[in-house]
Amino acid sequence: MGRPRRAAVGGYVYHVLNRANARMTIFEDQADYQSFEKVLIEAVERAETRLLAYCLMPNHWHLVVWPRNDGELSRFVGWLTLTHTQRWHAHRHSIGTGHVYQGRFKSFPIQSDEHFYTVARYVERNAVRANLVRRAERWPWGSLARWLRGSAEDRQLLARWPLPRKSNWVEHVNDPLTEAELAAGRKRCQEPFRAHETAASSTGSTSSTTAATWR
Predict the structure, then answer these.
(1) Which CATH architecture has domain 14-186?
(2) Is the pTM of the predicted complex or chain greater than 0.90?
């Protein structure tokens, strides 16, 4: 029996992740990270998928994405992982020697405003939790550094959030997560909540007006 098709309803925000096969290191040096980011940029442009946050780790990665259309999530992540796998093997002259990823990607729909903030924070501080850096913005292979210090061209990869960033977002990301927040960051819910585009600032600046509703 074939595997059931993954539900990928458009209009919802998802936390997406994938891990390396057998816990191997897939990003061994700066060139590996840059190569994946290049594929990520191509995938965003190709599918026109809204990328809200991301973090690349030595043996896995996290994305927060907001697809517009049904089936878009699977097409976007499927092309991303397949293309990265092909280029990873081609660079190492190892085509046909095994899998790069442990399996299909995992996706978790966002439940509410606060869950969105918790997941974005969980993703952007992942390198801190792994003791790779002391502050999240110092990890160059993630959305926080790109948003904070990147050029205008660099920041074009990141879409406008459905909610305004909280004030002092960088410090908020660097604050330790509680056990409840860690659980929420990993939580998979059965009923996703649809985000609606409203008047969020294109710069991601803080506002008292909620820029998304979840139902």
Answers:
(1) 2-Layer Sandwich (3.30)
(2) no
